[in-house]
Amino acid sequence: MSNLEQDPQESVCGGLADVAAEPVSELLIGRDVVLGGPRGMKVTRTLPNRDIRMVGAWCFVDHYGPEKATMRVAPHPHTGLQTVSWLLEGEVLHRDSVGSEQLIRPGQLNLMTAGRAISHSEESPSEVELHGVQLWVALPSADREVAPAFEHHAALPTLTAPGVRVTVIMGELGGAVSPARIHSPLVGAEVTLDAGGEILLPLRPDFEYAALALSGEVRVDRTDLDPGPLLYLGTGRSGLTLRAERPGRVLLLGGEPFEEEIVMWWNFVGRSHEEITRFRREWMEGGEFGTVTGVNDPPLRAPELPAVPMKPRGRRR
Question: By its UniProt entry, which Pfam families does this protein fall under (predicted)?
Answer without folding.
Answer: Pirin, Pirin_C
